[in-house]
Write a structure and sequence with these properties.
With 596 residues, the protein is α+β, with helices and mostly antiparallel strands. It has helices at residues 10-24, 67-72, 78-92, 104-108, 125-131, 138-145, 153-159, 166-169, 186-196, 202-214, 230-235, 265-272, 288-293, 298-308, 330-347, 384-389, and strands at 172-179, 242-247, 251-257, 277-283, 313-319, 355-359, 403-411, 415-420, 425-427, 431-435, 439-448, 451-453, 455-457, 461-467, 479-481, 489-499, 511-516, 519-532, 552-564, 576-581, 584-594. A six-stranded mixed β-sheet has the order 2-3-1-4-5-6, sandwiched between helices. A hairpin with a 2-residue loop joins strand 20 (576-581) and strand 21. The N and C termini lie far apart (108 Å).
Amino acid sequence: MATNGAPDSWEDAADQSLASKMTNLNVDAPAFVPNVNAPVFVPSFVQPPPTATGMSQPPPTMSQPPPEQAEAAPKGSPAKTMSASTSQDKIADSSPVVENKSSPTDASMKSDDSPMGEGGKVDSWEEKADISSTATTPDDEDSMEIDDNGAPRKTRIKQKPKTVEAVTTEKEHVNVVFIGHVDAGKSTIGGQMMYLTGMVDKRTLEKYEKEAKEKNRETWYLSWCMDTNMEEREKGKTVEVGRAYFETEKKHFTILDAPGHKSFVPNMIGGASQADLAVLVISARKGEFETGFERGGQTREHAMLVKTAGVKHLVILINKMDDPTVGWDEKRYNYCKDALTPYLKKLGFNPAKDIMFMPCSGLTGSGLKKPVGGDAPWYTGPPFIPYIDSLPSLKRQMDGPFMMPIVDKYSEMGTVVIGKVESGKCNKGDSLLVMPNRVEVKVDQLWSDDIEVTGVMSGENIKAKLKGIEENEVTPGFVLCDPHKPIKTGTVFDAQVVMLDLKSIICAGYSCILHLQAMAEEVTIKALICLVDKKTGDKSKTRPRFIKQDQIAIARFVSNHPICMETFKDHPQLGRFTLRDEGTTIAIGKILKVVE
């Protein structure tokens, strides 16, 4: 050994000390049994309140490790087992604590909160431990945060989606489609209404206005609320049916902004098929009204298509009244009104009940939410939003089987389908059927106009996330329906058609495109069954050889692929269709019988 007391070799000294310790070890010692009534460990830096005898508990000795060491100690160590077992026992069994023993509640509570009575007796330590959240060790807290499903409670609360039921179910849902010739101002009116009802904030509109000015299109900025993709903004033309919503005190309105260009009429038919109310937007500007209303214009075709789609009420907004060529002139307003009324009457709208004319300006917002006032003192009727809010409630098929024609679809963490519920109701978690493929799916999530909900009813415009089907397996025109009462599907059906705009005659073997809801499918006339008299409704005894313009006929149609459809008698919305050929609408019809 060295003079300073250090050993010659540290390794040897360590080996010797280890050997001596091993020999002194008592292998026959009894197994350690924790004392369930032992005092709970209190750190030295926390002074417990004085007990009834005025004596405080002595500070912990070194044999009781501080909390950090207690946690770091291995599982079998006595200190750990003692503290864990004691606190577990305290929580689970609520065993009474011996008097004059300190409790962890003391550490966290002030002396006035102490459970001592006036005579110094403990009232009820169990009650105090229940009230206090600190009567647990960190391990217990960890274990308590994990619930039955094995997910931590805190994180589950964060992940749980905010489900708003009252917002959507209290108010009546109304789907409004905006139709009219290209550049009549449909998207601008839609954007202005969203701004007036507070659905778009001023900052967003200022951003759009700045971007539009940079492109020398400053009057287009309001339409950008509805036209969201870059192609539509560059050209100033709506291509797809834009969607938005706004609410009034009584109703929840879904805006469907249909494209006005004749190339996109199939998209417009899909939008019109979801509508309960149509708004025909007319441009009062000199030259624009005439172009839209002439034989090739979209004003006539759109009005006829919404009537075919089953829209019963039509509001005609005569827009651009603030234009320099118009200047809120009553004569111009009456000229547009008088030109339109006979045509709308011919389509089947009743001018007294089904039609309402209103002047407005989409750019300034005059006549939309507030009356036109001084701009047009000659117009005393209501403004647009209060008028549609006051319309009578619509009848819905609430008790029928669930049916929702799919208008659009996309993939986002699963397959999401969009459409309007035509009948019945559906809840989150329901099992449904996608027809005509007969694929069983489960509803994972539901949104009613971008508001997440747990249930939807007939008349609502919804998005549904489906489990059990890929996005490429769904096509617009498919129907999501009740598995017990699915929609009819077939390739052969009989229908009554009204011929509208024919260049020549039509015979058996003629092919055209059938539009039913959002579906477009090529069909061929297999046979002409009979002609129907317009005035009496009588059917001809002999089979016609051909049909010409303005005639009504019953014919048998054949399609290449199965089509989802219902008879007009059972489900009017799923039983009416439009026939188009070479970019024009040639006929409208209703399904009488699904043959096979």
